[in-house]
Amino acid sequence: MMLEGCKSAKERWGGVSELIDNWLNERQNMIVLYCSMTGVKRSADERPLQDKLRNFCQLLVDYVSAGHFEIYEQLEQEALEFGDKEALNNSGQLFASIQKNTGACLDFNDSCEKVGCVVELQNSLSQIGETLEERFELEDQLIEILHNAHKDTVSQMAAG
Description:
Elements (H helix, E strand, L loop, with lengths): L1 H12 L4 H20 L8 H36 L3 H27 L6 H42 L1
Helix pairs in contact: 1-2, 1-5, 2-3, 3-4, 3-5, 4-5
């Protein structure tokens, strides 16, 4: 379900902004890696799973950081440039929810090294999966409010 949502977001916003495109590609890579770790029940060789987990945590931190320090700022700046006060007001609550979600993502990252067994890992992955699904929905709303509202205006300016 998460992967389908990612494809849908790419179809809606792909090509609009290279930065957003790259970020959505990071999202998709993270989801694919996440899916490759879920459902693993045996612990015969935990090394590949630990390697995937380490890579996933790095992608997660990179993705969350890019959102906060690149994407959200760009989206907010775009709304400011268009004087879109309604979009900026509507985005405030989304930013607050995303910030709370970021805490859960960083907590997951901090706890990764402490996961002792495969069953515990699967429980943690299930929780972070729900957290990411919520995050992606919030981010998609943010892009819709702050970016897509101006897409036609930007296209007209580029054509004119």
